[in-house]
Amino acid sequence: MNSKQKDGWLLGMSDLFQDYSEAAGRTGAYDEMFAPGQQARDSYEQVAEALRKLSLADVSARADSMARTFLDRGVTFDFAGEERPFPLDIVPRVIPAAEWDVMERGVAQRVRALEAFLNDVYDKMTVVSDGVIPRQLVTTSAHFHRQVHGFEPAGGVRVHISGIDVIRDAAGTFRVLEDNVRVPSGVSYVLENRRAMAKGLPEAFGQQLIRPVEEYPRRLLSALRKTAPAGVDDPTVVVLTPGVFNSAYFEHTLLAGLMGVELVEGRDLICRGNRVYMRTTAGEQRVDVIYKRIDDDFLDPLQFRADSMLGCPGLVNAARAGGVTIANAVGNGVADDKLVYSYVPDLIRYYLGEEPIIANVDTFRLEEKEAREYTLDNLAELVVKPVDGSGGKGLVIGPDASNDELDALRQRIIADPRGWIAQPVLQLSTVPTLSGDKFGPRHVDLRPFAVNDGDNVWVLPGGLTRVALKEGSLIVNSSQGGGSKDTWVLADSPQMPVESVPRQSVTVRERVSVWPVESNWRDRQSEQQQ
Amino acid sequence: MLSRIAESLFWIGRYVERADGTARILDVHLERLNHLPMEERKNVAQELLAVMGARPQSEDFGLPELLHALAYDKTSATSIAGSLGAARENARRARETVSSGLWESLNTTYYGLSQHRKDVVGTYRFCNWTLERTAMVSGLADTTVSHDESWLFLVLGRSLERADMTARMLSTRDVLSAGMSWVNMLRCAGAYESFLRTRRAAFGDQHAAEFLLLDRLFPRSIVYALRDADECLAKLDPSAQRVGFINDARRIVGQARTFLEFHRTDDLMSELPEHMERVQKAVAQASDAISRKYFNQADELAWVGELS
Fold first, then answer.
1. More confidently predicted of B72 and A527
2. CA-CA distance, B15 to A94, in Å (whole number)?
3. Which partner for A217 in A258, A358, B103, B293 could form a disulfide, CB atoms 3.0-4.6 Å apart?
């Protein structure tokens, strides 16, 4: 950037980015867009250039229009019984190719390790007998389901879809925050965000090659079909939703629509002879693969909660008999347990013989005496999380909590040390985010999605970047005032023009003539035209 | 009914459908154009214009010129604004025949034309707005006009233009293929979800092209649109009941439709350019034949001429 451009940059940006560097300095976090000194990083050059040309009025008009589009399209989440558009910020989160390469390998590695771990704990538990992880820890997990012990699921895959939450710490290093291998949600926002951004900030797409995300539904469908029970030629896949009142219902409809499969509720299914059927106008039709979007507890009233109206009795037995593939497999929750999480680096070494590519966040296991004592003494500086929570529920951030809250937390930890973990407060990295009349730094995390078809773990080049819209807040969950950003993964060679792909056009392709020669039509000039 | 009125209705049908098709094509391609390097944009913009049946007026034809030519140019019947203006003008001349609902919605649309920002982001909104307005016009035409001869002319125009527009959508796939996925092509026609539900796991551009060209149930497919046109022509001229057709338009439309419908092929993609060319030509010829048979006007009404 030469000096003349730089002046223009500072002038143009003065309104919207006023005070940005000062605010970013206050957080002490790594900023994704600007290196220290308000200098846009290489990967963000195009975005910065596009934003520089916009005035506040432009930016707000576009943000409004994006929100309206989301509302119109029904891209909403359920907030206290009300449909709200999922807030999408206009500044994307950009990840350069080299960083993504690490991320991709790290996520795939983790998925393979968790897959091996789940196969093991529901079988011989060699991981316990070899002393890698205590037996008690596995068996006391709330989501360790003995009902699915002792069988390999049809198709041989347990973690078909995973969402590994990753954050970037103050030093700029990626770390895994938690694993989601039960029902990871949010991929619909990845797809919708990209569509909205293509129309909301078209200037920023320009020269750089942003890797597309639209192939996700096809990848997912082919993985689901591939893991169908053996001997089924043309498997029928369905998406099982709890129904229209679920907060992620939009995502269920979108995925079923984009995969071109039926979206079923529990009452549409029926199990007979360890096979699953759905009731259709043409009679009962066999279902081979169920993409399950409901919690295990509600899946099968014969095995889990007997009062559940959402599931279908007999599903677990059908899965045990190999008559149906359930994705993700029942019982995966044990791998999401935050205490198990603290062992994942060991699991990677144990099962794969590799060093973890992405590190964990340092975690205190509160059943260990020293760690517990340290935690209880330093509660005010730590984040304490329940091991089986999700969506940021029950999480206590020490520095933000009142003394009463900390006292209550202390009692709960002493009463149930197995139920909690503690971590240092991490300054999640920040990205400029529109807030009122200017951009301010807001903390973000990242959820890359991976699809495992048994042979290959494919990581979607993109992911859900969630952003805490309140200044200084570290909680990014949508149920607690979070929004999202489109996540752009840059391709290796940004200069490669799209058109360098060989063009199949009329001129190149050999012309084939199959139509009859025109006979009695009055217009005969056509033959000469070509 | 009066030839003059019939002609107006025919062209209301065509122009409204043309605006709709152009808005769909522009909306999808604009997204792709934006992702191209500057130098490429000019070429692709010109190719796109050529697919829409117009030539650049000057050497320096880039994105802003393309937007003008396809969206905002009120003097050209290729553009959305031009088509909608022409549709309104036709409705004004047949005002005593069209329902007030239809007339008002066309007129409101006409006055809304200039209320849009003409940059890229504004054009996206303009395209969306156009789709909403044309859907409203079609809906009102279907529900407030008796389905008599006058309505048949309107539907005839609409069906012919729809076949033509779908052919152009498929041609854009062929001319601008690099980076243009079949997903976008289907989105263009609003056919994505329908396609996915019928095809299950069979994806790919061959299937997508087949769907838009030959599907018997999807209303925007070429075969479907030509069948609609054929049915309108049959109802308009019930005289030829037993042998042959003296009606040129029916012969042209019928031959094109039956050829496509009964054609068997292993390599649709390489035949696609010819199919598209022939469909567009058949539509133009049918339109001429209809003019000769039913409208029988002298040349002074230049505003109804085929421009594409």
1. B72
2. 43
3. A258
Residue B143 CB coordination number (10 Å): 10
CA distance B111 to B81: 10
Query: Which residues neighbour B105 within 8 Å (Cβ) at sequence distance 6 or greater?
Result: B133, B136, B137, B140
**Helices marked H in chain B — which ranges?**
3-34, 38-51, 63-67, 80-93, 100-112, 120-144, 149-175, 182-188, 192-199, 205-214, 222-236, 248-262, 268-290
For range A290-306, the mean pLDDT: 91
Task: Give chain B's radius of gyration (CA, Å).
Answer: 19
Query: Which of A209, A232, A521 to probe the B interface (max B CBs under 10 A)?
Result: A521
Longest dimension (CA), chain A: 96
* Whole-angstrom distance, CA of residue B229 vs CA of residue A221: 38
Share of chain B above pLDDT 70, in %: 90
Q: Are strands A275-280 and A449-452 parallel, antiparallel or unpaired?
A: unpaired
The H-or-E segment that residue A216 falls in is helix A216-226
Mean pLDDT of chain A: 85
* CB distance A506 to B175 below 8 Å: yes
Please choose, from the candidates A48, A27, A30, A50, the residue with its C-alpha nearest in 3D space to the C-alpha of residue A39. A48
The answer to whether residue B207 scores a pLDDT higher than 70 is yes
What confidence category does residue A500 fall into, taking pLDDT thresholds of 50, 70 and 90?
very low
**Which carries the bigger pLDDT value, residue A306 or residue A289?**
A289
* Residue located via tokens 């039956």: B258
| Sheet containing A420-424, strands listed edge to edge, beginning at the edge strand earlier in sequence | A364-365, A420-424, A382-386, A396-397
Give me the residue spans of the domains in chain A. Answer: 3-55, 65-361+426-489
Shortest distance between the Cα of A222 and any Cα of chain B, in A, equals: 8
The residue type of A293 is R
Note the helical H segments in A298-355: 315-320, 333-336, 338-341, 344-352
For residue A413, what are its two tokens?
Answer: 């930890």
Residue A390: which region, alpha, beta or left (left: phi > 0; alpha: psi -120 to 50)?
beta
Partners of residue A203 in chain B, C-beta under 8 Å: 34, 120
Among chain A, residues having any CB pair with chain B shorter than 8 Å are 62, 65, 198-200, 202-203, 205-207, 210, 214, 218, 221-222, 225, 257-261, 497-499, 501-506, 509-516, 520-523, 526
Side-chain-facing half-sphere of A250: CA atoms under 13 Å:
21
Closest by CA to A44, choosing from A55, A54, A53, A33, is: A33
- A109 touches A119 (CB < 8 A): no
Q: DSSP labels for A400-436?
A: GS-HHHHHHHHHHHHH-GGGEEEEEPP---EEEEEET
- Put simply, the answer to whether A526 touches B175 (Cβ < 8 Å) is no
Full domain range(s) for residue B175: 3-304
pLDDT of residue A392: 67
Three-state DSSP at A317 gives: helix
Across the interface, whether the CB atoms of B274 and A514 are under 8 A apart is answered: yes
How many domains does chain B contain in total?
1
